[in-house]
């Protein structure tokens, strides 16, 4: 008898042959509802037909979309004709560009005191630079589009009755394509035929999951083509046999002939596929399939198998565009959706709203404040001039009140207080800082060689101000490489399985693809020895039978793929979406129960498993058992369990595995006290526990249930709720089988990284779905909780009122403790987030503790916790880090989302703002790049506003100084003012701040406390802002007044009386003041650099002085300058050849000594944490720790 039947009682399981409708009738079940036409799926669906005479689609418009190339992908935004208009339209969505366009309009008015070209040309330059940048990005998109559209695939020619190569862009709905192994699928297709019965596709580019997905053709098709497939095998013309000794091109040609042999009979019968409207849901596909002209043999075949047509088409038959065929030589498919209707394109437009950094908000507020200040000063100047009786200029319009004209004149004079280059420079600085993250060798994964990736550079400075870090556990703090650690059967712990002997050659983790090395240890682990001893006991022993049944459950209850051994005599290679399943299959195989094959049953929705058991006293008798999986109820974050229904020799079994808290209510016999004690011990050891249970079913009950299950799966509305209800109906009254405990090891450097993050002043929360005891032990091993830490528990909550009681008790505990931590579970979170008072109190408890672990959380609860912290602390910055799809909501909700390249797919990486390969890389990301970026951006914003207030002060002072108050004349030459924002002061701030170094990256972990300055906003706050503004006023007044009073003259007054008189002395003093203004602001920048005398800093300052001299020479000593700025013709040479002007510049520059003294004294009296750390580093007191 088979191993299944040797087991006592209801403890048995495996898988099952597919359902027959005739069998359903025989057992009294009702027939499933027949799908009669496409209207059963969606009123807006499409119909595809293919026969020997050709193909057709309905509606016919599908073929004429996009100029007859409906599969042509276009992601570009511009064409040559609309590039400039569309780019300008997008640019004028920014308020700053609207402001500068307003300035350009009034500067061209006849009353403008400056030449329009000095303002209009720089503004047009900014617009053109942005437009060229847009076009460059669009050209890259076009190149990527061409690479996609011009890829080759193989399409069936209905005219030639053969396959021919075509470009992807030439594919239409209803075309039949041939896809070779390792080639991508050109459109969303329905599988017609797979040469091995089922196809395996990689969907990593679609959903980020790296495990292979199996796809099968609709039941009617697989039933009809199975005979053709077997005939090809009997002829010895399989693709593998044809591939021997042939080139790739020759082999592909032979495959085309094989595919034609399969396809021609199908086309003779006529194919009709009806599909529902395209939708974004990646796992949804509904439709029907039928033969148009089936012959009698086909009808007899379908009747014999109980298959009615039209038969249902579901996601299991679906092949998304861009996915790659793996493991089989070829497949044939019919195209259902093309171009913009494919899943990939529909999901491209589903983008989250862009996150905006707090510094961007502060910048916008600063600009708004400057505009308001400009408005007030212009109103003040116009009013002052009116009251002083200042005469109007002849060029002013007579039909407009003088006050309005004066207001606009001074707006033109002072408009550059908001620099044109502000946002451009801001973007450049962030791009450079983002590029430095990607170039940092500290964050290059030593295994894959992949660096960190800043998916957006807009949030780099936010990483230097993080208050709360929310982290997933599995795959983020741990390796997510499960190994069997413990088994508990019949209240007996079987021992420790964690030895190298459990690793075997060829075993592959589901997602990493890395192979374990061949073990070299001479003896098996204690758990292996004990389990083999138990399995050698007599067959009527309960412990032996239950242990054997547990291994059979582990080998059967899974959705993993089984691949042949890598070497003869080896064990199969397992791969799946869950590392748990791979660990169970590996462990069972090493203990003698091996799942050797997993094959689709032709014409059915079932999967046949082959179980080889080598269990006995001498472990020599090899038993082969066939088990057919009839139904699978998948694992979800809400259900926290997975079930299969399988059939073996007419007996139906249900096998369920899941979390103990979920499984205990489902088991009729419950858990014994010893089982509960083992669960607690395993959890305290940091192990991940799963419970197995099973039961047998009457066949008539199962057939009736299966019809309800399939009907629920076909629903368009309420599908998930109905399927959950069907699952709950089956997953009850189970018999407890045993407990498994898996170990997920910590990643390298995790404890040290968490210690540094805590030392840097951040609060660290671990959000996990594990049970409380397991999570606590894991975080203890991570050093998140220390031995001297007092823990407050917010668990087992019964409602909102109870949540408040628990919070009050927790606050009492935390306030009396020196260091405290919080332990929270899902029941408390669900209750506490219902009321605002509980949310506020929970945040207060979070602030009173340094660390927290939240257990038994769903993805939605993770998201709501992050949002709760954001709402309670409007200024705080949150960071979420995770590696799996269940972390996406949390990552997107946080201010900064960090994704880890993990073993649970790429969804977290795709949703993140920054991607890293290991958790320990979070330390250099935050303490090095984030901290420096915050300091640099803070200084950048303050400096940009400072330097423009400084230069504007000259015009402000001159407005009061002029004999005719606020007459409306400029203080600095307009082209000098135009060169000031970018050439003379913009490039230095970008170069200095982007490459300025304070501490070497390798010593920063030895002084994590310097990060607190970012949390406290030490570099950008009202006090700092006021200091910069007052400094700008002081410097602006000094650089104007000293030259004006020393070397200036009263010639300007004569200029007001005698038209056409050139006030040479005024312009000499003005040019000297401008030179001093450039010198002051650049030296001020050097004062705030932490490496002011480094080669890059000295070099850029020297280049700036050369640029200043070149600008003055061009404007004052060349014909071009004579046309652009005639007022200063010859003046640069005069001031640089006359010693008194040099004396003015030297004396005025000495005022900067006041700044030097103030900054030096403040650094000595009240040094910042960073300054203190730099002094310790120079003294050799900082070590270089390694993670």
Please explain how this structure is put together:
The protein is an alpha+beta fold and 1187 residues long. Strands 15-34-33-32-16-28-31-30-29 form a nine-stranded mixed sheet, sandwiched between helices. It is globular and about 115 Å long.
Which descriptor suits the 3D outline? Answer: globular
Separation, N- and C-terminal Cα atoms: 57 Å
Strand arrangement within the widest β-sheet reads: 15-34-33-32-16-28-31-30-29
Proportion of β residues?
15-25%
Q: What structural class is derived from the secondary structure elements?
A: alpha+beta
Summarize the structure.
The protein is of the alpha+beta class and 1187 residues long. It has 42 helices and 34 strands.
Q: What descriptors fit this protein?
A:
1187 residues; alpha+beta; 46% helix; 17% strand
Describe how the helices and strands are arranged.
Elements: H1 21-26, E1 46-51, E2 54-58, H2 65-68, H3 83-91, H4 95-107, H5 117-149, E3 152-157, E4 162-167, E5 176-180, E6 188-194, E7 199-202, H6 204-207, E8 212-215, H7 219-234, H8 239-242, H9 248-269, E9 271-275, E10 287-291, H10 296-304, E11 311-313, E12 318-319, E13 324-326, E14 330-337, H11 343-348, H12 358-388, H13 402-414, H14 422-438, E15 453-454, E16 466-471, E17 478-489, E18 492-493, H15 526-535, H16 542-556, E19 561-563, E20 573-575, H17 579-590, E21 593-600, E22 607-613, E23 623-633, E24 641-648, E25 651-658, H18 660-663, H19 673-684, E26 688-697, H20 699-713, H21 719-730, E27 735-746, H22 750-759, E28 763-767, H23 772-781, E29 790-794, H24 800-815, E30 820-825, H25 826-832, H26 836-848, E31 851-855, H27 859-872, E32 877-882, H28 888-893, E33 896-900, H29 907-911, E34 914-916, H30 922-961, H31 974-984, H32 986-995, H33 1012-1015, H34 1022-1047, H35 1051-1057, H36 1064-1087, H37 1095-1117, H38 1119-1124, H39 1131-1137, H40 1139-1149, H41 1152-1165, H42 1169-1178
Parallel strand pairs: 16-28, 16-32, 28-31, 29-30, 30-31, 32-33, 33-34
Antiparallel strand pairs: 1-2, 1-9, 3-4, 3-5, 5-14, 6-12, 6-14, 7-8, 7-13, 9-10, 10-11, 15-34, 17-18, 17-27, 19-20, 21-22, 22-23, 23-24, 24-25, 25-26, 26-27
Helix pairs in contact: 3-5, 7-9, 12-13, 12-30, 14-30, 14-32, 16-17, 19-23, 20-21, 24-26, 30-32, 30-34, 30-36, 31-37, 32-37, 34-36, 34-40, 36-37, 36-39, 36-40, 36-41
């Amino acid at each position: 008898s088979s191993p299944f039947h040797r087991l006592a009682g209801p403890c048995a399981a495996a898988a099952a042959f597919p359902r027959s409708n005739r069998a359903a009738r025989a057992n009294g079940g009702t027939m499933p509802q027949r799908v009669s036409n496409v209207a059963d799926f969606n009123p807006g669906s499409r119909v595809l037909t293919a026969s020997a005479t050709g193909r057709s689609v309905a509606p016919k418009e599908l073929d004429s979309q996009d100029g007859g190339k409906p599969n042509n992908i276009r992601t570009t935004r511009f064409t040559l004709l609309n590039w400039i208009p569309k780019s300008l339209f997008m640019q004028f969505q920014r308020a700053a560009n609207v402001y500068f366009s307003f300035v350009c309009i009034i500067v061209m008015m006849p009353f403008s005191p400056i030449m329009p070209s000095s303002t209009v040309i720089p503004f047009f330059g900014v617009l053109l630079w942005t437009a060229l940048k847009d076009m460059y990005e669009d050209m890259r998109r076009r190149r990527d589009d061409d690479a996609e559209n011009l890829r080759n695939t193989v399409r069936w020619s209905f005219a030639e009755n053969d396959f021919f190569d075509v470009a992807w862009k030439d594919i239409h709905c209803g075309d039949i394509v041939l896809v070779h192994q390792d080639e991508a699928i050109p459109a969303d297709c329905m599988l017609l035929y797979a040469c091995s019965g089922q196809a395996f596709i990689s969907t990593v580019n679609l959903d980020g999951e790296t495990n292979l997905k199996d796809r099968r053709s609709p039941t009617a098709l697989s039933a009809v083509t199975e005979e053709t497939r077997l005939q090809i095998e009997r002829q010895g013309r399989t693709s593998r046999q044809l591939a021997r000794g042939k080139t790739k091109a020759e082999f592909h040609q032979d495959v085309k002939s094989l595919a034609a042999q399969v396809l021609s009979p199908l086309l003779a019968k006529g194919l009709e596929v009806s599909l529902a409207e395209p939708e974004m849901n990646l796992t949804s596909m509904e439709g029907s399939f039928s033969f148009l002209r089936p012959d009698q043999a086909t009808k007899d075949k379908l009747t014999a198998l109980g298959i009615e047509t039209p038969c249902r088409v579901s996601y299991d038959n679906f092949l998304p565009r861009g996915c790659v065929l793996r493991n089989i030589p070829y497949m044939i498919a019919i195209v259902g959706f093309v171009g913009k209707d494919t899943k990939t394109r529909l999901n491209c437009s589903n983008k989250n709203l862009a996150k905006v950094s707090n510094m961007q908000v502060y910048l916008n507020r600063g600009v708004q404040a400057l505009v308001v200040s400009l408005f007030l000063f212009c109103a003040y100047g116009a009013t002052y001039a009116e009251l002083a009786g200042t005469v109007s200029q002849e060029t002013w319009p007579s039909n407009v009140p003088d006050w309005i004209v004066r207001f606009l004149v001074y707006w033109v004079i002072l408009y550059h207080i908001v620099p044109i280059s502000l946002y451009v420079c801001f973007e450049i600085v962030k791009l450079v800082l983002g590029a430095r993250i990607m170039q940092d060798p500290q964050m290059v994964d030593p295994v894959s060689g992949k660096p960190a990736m800043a998916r957006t550079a807009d949030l780099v400075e936010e990483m230097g101000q993080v208050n709360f870090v929310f982290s997933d556990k599995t795959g983020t703090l741990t390796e997510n490489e499960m190994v069997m650690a413990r088994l508990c059967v019949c209240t007996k712990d079987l021992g420790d399985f964690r030895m190298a002997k459990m690793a075997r050659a060829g075993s592959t983790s589901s997602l990493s693809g890395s192979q374990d090395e061949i073990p070299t240890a001479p003896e098996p682990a204690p758990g292996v020895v004990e389990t083999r001893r138990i399995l050698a006991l007599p067959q009527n022993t309960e412990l032996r039978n239950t242990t054997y049944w547990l291994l059979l459950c582990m080998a059967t209850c899974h959705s993993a793929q089984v691949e042949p051994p890598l070497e003869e005599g080896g064990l199969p290679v397992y791969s799946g979406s869950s590392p748990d399943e791979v660990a169970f299959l590996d462990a069972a195989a090493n203990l003698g129960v091996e799942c050797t094959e997993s094959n689709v049953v032709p014409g059915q929705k079932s999967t046949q498993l082959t179980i080889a058991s080598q269990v006995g006293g001498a472990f020599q008798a090899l038993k082969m058992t066939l088990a057919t999986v009839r139904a699978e109820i998948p694992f979800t974050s809400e259900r926290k369990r997975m079930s299969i229904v399988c059939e073996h020799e007419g007996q139906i079994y249900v096998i369920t595995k899941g979390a103990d808290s979920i499984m205990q209510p489902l088991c009729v016999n419950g858990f014994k006290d010893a089982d509960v004690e083992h669960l607690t011990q395993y959890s305290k050891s940091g192990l991940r526990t799963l419970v197995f249970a099973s039961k047998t079913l009457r066949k008539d009950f199962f057939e009736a249930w299966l019809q309800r299950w399939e009907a629920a799966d076909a629903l368009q509305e309420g599908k998930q709720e109905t399927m959950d209800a069907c699952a709950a109906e089956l997953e009850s009254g189970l018999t407890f089988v045993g407990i498994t405990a898996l170990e997920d090891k910590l990643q390298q450097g995790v404890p040290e990284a968490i210690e540094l993050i805590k030392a840097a002043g951040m609060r660290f929360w671990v959000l996990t779905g594990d049970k409380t005891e397991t999570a606590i032990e894991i975080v203890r091993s991570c050093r998140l909780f220390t031995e001297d830490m007092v823990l407050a528990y917010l668990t087992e909550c019964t409602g909102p009122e109870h949540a408040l009681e628990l919070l009050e008790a927790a606050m009492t505990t935390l306030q009396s403790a020196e260091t405290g931590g919080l332990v929270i579970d899902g029941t408390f979170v669900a209750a506490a987030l219902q009321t605002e008072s509980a949310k506020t109190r929970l945040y207060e408890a979070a602030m009173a503790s340094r660390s927290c672990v939240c257990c038994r959380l769903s993805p939605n609860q993770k998201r709501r916790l992050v949002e709760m912290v954001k709402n309670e602390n409007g200024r705080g910055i949150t960071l979420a880090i995770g590696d799996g799809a269940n972390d996406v909501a949390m990552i997107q909700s946080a201010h900064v989302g960090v994704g880890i390249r993990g073993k649970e797919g790429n969804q977290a990486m795709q949703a993140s703002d920054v991607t890293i390969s290991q958790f320990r890389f979070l330390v250099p990301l935050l303490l090095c790049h984030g901290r420096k970026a915050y300091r640099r951006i803070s200084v950048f914003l303050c400096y940009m506003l400072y330097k423009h207030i400084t230069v504007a002060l000259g015009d402000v002072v001159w407005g009061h100084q002029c004999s005719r108050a606020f007459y409306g004349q400029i203080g600095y030459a307009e082209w000098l003012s135009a060169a000031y924002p970018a050439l003379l002061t913009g490039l230095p701030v970008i170069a200095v701040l982007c490459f300025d170094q304070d501490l070497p990256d390798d010593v920063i972990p030895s002084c994590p406390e310097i990060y607190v300055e970012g949390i406290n906003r030490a570099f950008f706050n009202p006090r700092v802002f006021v200091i910069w503004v007052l400094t700008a006023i002081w410097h602006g007044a000094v650089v104007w007044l000293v030259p004006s009073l020393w070397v200036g003259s009263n010639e300007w007054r004569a200029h007001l009386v005698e038209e056409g008189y050139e006030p040479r002395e005024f312009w000499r003093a003005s040019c000297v003041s401008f030179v001093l203004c450039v010198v002051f602001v650049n030296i001020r920048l050097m004062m705030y650099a932490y490496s002011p005398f480094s080669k890059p800093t000295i070099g850029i300052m020297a280049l700036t002085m050369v640029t200043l001299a070149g600008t003055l020479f061009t404007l004052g000593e060349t014909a071009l300058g004579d046309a652009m700025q005639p007022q200063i013709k010859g003046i640069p040479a005069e001031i640089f050849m006359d010693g008194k002007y040099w004396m003015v510049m030297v004396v005025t520059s000495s005022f900067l000594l006041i700044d030097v003294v103030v900054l030096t004294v403040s650094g000595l009296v009240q040094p910042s944490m960073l300054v203190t750390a730099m002094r310790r580093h120079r003294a050799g007191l900082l070590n270089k720790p390694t993670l």
